[in-house]
Amino acid sequence: MKSTSVWRHFDLWLTAAVFLLTAYGILVIRSSVTGAPAFEDFPQRQVVFAFIGIIVMLTIAAIDYRILTSSHWYIYIFIVVSLIFVYLVGVINNDSRRWFDLGIVQLQPSEFGRIFLAVTFAQFLASRKHLMSRFSNTLLSLLYVGIPVALIFIQPDLGMTILFFVVWFVLIWLAGLPLSHFAVLATVAIVLIIALFPALADYQRDRIIAFLNPEALPEQSFNIEQALISIGSGGWFGKGYLQGTQSQLGFLRVQHTDFIFSVLTEELGLIFGSVVVLGLMAFILLRILRVAKLSPDPAGQYIAAGVATVLFFQTVVSVGMNLRVLPVTGLTLPFVSYGGSSLITLYMGIGVVQSVLMRHRKQEFG
Fold first, then answer.
1. Which long-range contacts (CB under 8 A, 24 or more apart) does 315-318 make?
2. Cα separation of 14 and 124, whole Å?
3. SS3 assignment for the chain
4. For 304-357, how does the pLDDT look when each residue is reduced to its tens digit (9 = 90+)?
5. What residues have CB less than 8 Å from 206, skipping those under 6 apart?
6. What rounded mean pLDDT belongs to the chain?
7. What's the pLDDT score for residue 211?
8. Has residue 366 got a pLDDT over 50?
9. How far apart, in whole angstroms, are the C-alpha atoms of residue 135 and residue 181?
């Protein structure tokens, strides 16, 4: 029989949506750094990161995802070791030690970890699916995720800590977590949250307090107020590209990362800003969930669900903190916010999803 290339199942619609969202992000980054000489090369750098991401995506897609799942313990060890090393020798930015400085770019292991964990934990659950009714298995899965989470928490990085736990919960729920186990873990989680609050870094506690009571910390609340002004003043069609007052006049801080949603909404409005970006993200999520549905392999299903969870949760948190319905955690808007490690690893996640889709038909295995 004539051999059929697995590339015929490559999802061009998913890829096109990711490209469009990335291009949209580069345009908004250009606007957000206008008038800031220290950041003027960020749009060009983001273009380079995007090209690297595309190469990474195609390379990962060409690799059978089962090679990755069969090596899941090695990948997991790599995640843990890289998090240990970044804590010991990583560079410090904004009171956090999260990055390796490679000169041209700074790499954040936890960014790569969020995608790799979706792969390794997917295989961990798939291989233990017959043990899901045992509480000891649930505790073991929690330990599996808890080790890298603990290393991320002490960096400190609260946003990524929460993200890892959300990925854990969604995947183990899909694998068949008993309701009784969830009830016990939820109770324990509430106790841990209360107990760990004093252990948070000062700026992390301030962010939570500023969210709950803005008047208590006006300096912390200032940027959130500016974000709300930016979004509210954008109206239906925005003030025009490069015409935002809050962003262009410097009222809004970290506008190329945490608060880029406010910039795009102020300048491009609800219709051409928020709806376009969120619509593209919704389309991307639907295409990824389609892959999860098509995959006959539990590991493939969990991988696609894990990547979708990362994108969905980061989008909700990023938009939520711009609207002041969620506290500021530092999680950025996927494919839109500036960041090399973030963009490249997101493309890596899309590549893994494509690999699952390209090999979803059994007759093409092997």
1. 315/278, 315/281, 317/159, 318/258, 318/261
2. 27
3. CCCCCHHHHCCHHHHHHHHHHHHHHHHHHHHHCCCCHHHCCHHHHHHHHHHHHHHHHHHHHHCCHHHHHHCHHHHHHHHHHHHHHHHHHCEEECCEEEEEECCCCEECHHHHHHHHHHHHHHHHHHHCHHHCCCHHHHHHHHHHHHHHHHHHHCCCCHHHHHHHHHHHHHHHHHCCCCHHHHHHHHHHHHHHHHHHHHHCCHHHHHHHHHHHCHHHCHHHHHHHHHHHHHHHHHCCCCCCCCCCHHHHCCCCCCCCCCCHHHHHHHHHHHHHHHHHHHHHHHHHHHHHHHHHHHCCCHHHHHHHHHHHHHHHHHHHHHHHHHCCCCCCCCCCCCCCCCCHHHHHHHHHHHHHHHHHHHCCCHHHCC
4. 999 999 999 999 999 999 998 888 887 899 999 998 889 999 999 999 999 999
5. 217, 220
6. 88
7. 66
8. no
9. 7
156 prior amide bond cis, ω within 30: yes
Question: What confidence category does residue 204 fall into, taking pLDDT thresholds of 50, 70 and 90?
Answer: confident
Q: Which tokens sit at 63?
A: 């690799």
Which two structure tokens, joined as six digits, stand for 81?
């070791």
Contact 126, 176 (CB under 8 A): no
Give yes or no for residue 1 having a pLDDT over 50.
Answer: no
Which pTM value belongs to this model?
0.90
What does the block give as tokens for 167?
A: 């990925």
Provide the residue ranges of all domains of the chain, joining segments of one domain with +: 6-364
Give strand pairing partners of 92: 97
* 41-to-48, 151, 264, 330 alpha-carbon distances in Å: 11, 32, 19, 22
User: C-alpha angle 356/145/161, rounded to 5°?
Assistant: 100
